[in-house]
Prior knowledge:
Layout: H1 4-17, E1 22-26, E2 32-35, H2 37-44, E3 49-52, E4 55-58, H3 61-76, H4 78-81, E5 86-89, E6 98-104, H5 109-113, E7 120-126, H6 130-141, H7 145-155, H8 160-166, H9 171-185, H10 190-200
Antiparallel strand pairs: 1-2, 1-7, 3-4, 5-6, 6-7
Helix pairs in contact: 6-7, 7-9, 8-9
Amino acid sequence: MLDIGTVERAGMAEALDALTCAVVLTNERGAVLHANRSAKHMLRSGGPIQDVHGILQAKIPSASKELHSAIMLAAQDEASIGKTGLAVLLSESGLPPVFARVLPMAGGDLRAGMEPAAVAAVFVGNAPDEHDAAGMLARAFGLTLAETRVLASLLAGHTLAETGASFHIAGTTAKTHLDNIFQKTGVSRQADLMRLIMQIVPPAGQPGP
């Protein structure tokens, strides 16, 4: 006969499997304690995350270091992360952006009912729809229509030169729009801009905060 704890764990695992984004629960060292169906497929298929001797790693070394720093922060200082978590860019420059969002699990029902040793839930998925994300950032930071169009193009994976050409504007004009976006949002790099977006909009398939 199954006890109630086993039934609850099975129900939580089923709920995680229903998410279309990959979800990995880890301890403070990044050890993989549980992976949902999407995460298992991603780990097996050589995607942006890997299981290396039981430890969650990113395929890109620099991203792996940042991912583990985020997990450690989730374990040590949950208050500083907040409900939105920390975003880590997993994909290389020039490729469609893939992010991990690291959320702390201290005191959560999922941790208590399924993996008591888990300190972080790592959600991995593609960046949100570029037009939705650009529109949300435009409303939050007062971007102009031209700046919003440039931002959406960059979020779609286009370079600044390609963006300028697609809108029939000079590269210097596209760069001016990007500089204005940086100034209004308070960041100085496109990677930081993507992280800002991921703080606002969850990866596809992840429930909102």
